[in-house]
TrEMBL record:
Pfam families: DDE_Tnp_1. GO terms for molecular function: DNA binding; transposase activity. It comes from the Bacteria. One of its GO terms (biological process) is DNA transposition. InterPro entries: Transposase_11. Signal peptide: none annotated. This is Transposase. Residues 3-92 form the Transposase IS4-like domain. It comes from Granulicella mallensis.
Length: 101
């Protein structure tokens, strides 16, 4: 059996909230509970969190969803926009939370 850590971080990559699920749990099931009623301008997310329900929730927060483009350079139909260089840096900071030294 494996586990997944679903992490919500701020724009500096600092953890704000997290949840641990079974490894087979779908990533997108945890986004809305983690986001809750927070407010922000952008929500950077892995492609696993790109769904209609999440995009609608983020829009209700007054924000847009930002995801990394796929191998063809395109984002899914749900995504509002793609990463800018600054957002890529923020995403890297979040990924750094999981780095093992």
């Amino acid at each position: 059996m494996s586990t997944k850590i679903h992490l919500l971080a701020d724009e500096q990559g600092l953890p704000v909230d997290f949840d641990v699920t079974a490894g087979q749990a779908n990533d997108c099931t945890q986004a809305i509970p983690l986001l809750g009623e927070r407010t922000t301008g952008h929500v950077l997310a892995d492609k696993g969190y790109d769904s209609d329900a999440i995009v609608e929730h983020v829009a209700a927060m007054g924000a847009v969803v930002v995801t990394r483009p796929n191998a063809t350079g395109r984002c899914s139909a749900n995504t509002t926009k793609t990463f800018t260089n600054r957002e890529i840096a923020s995403n890297a900071a979040v990924a750094g939370v999981f780095a093992i030294g």
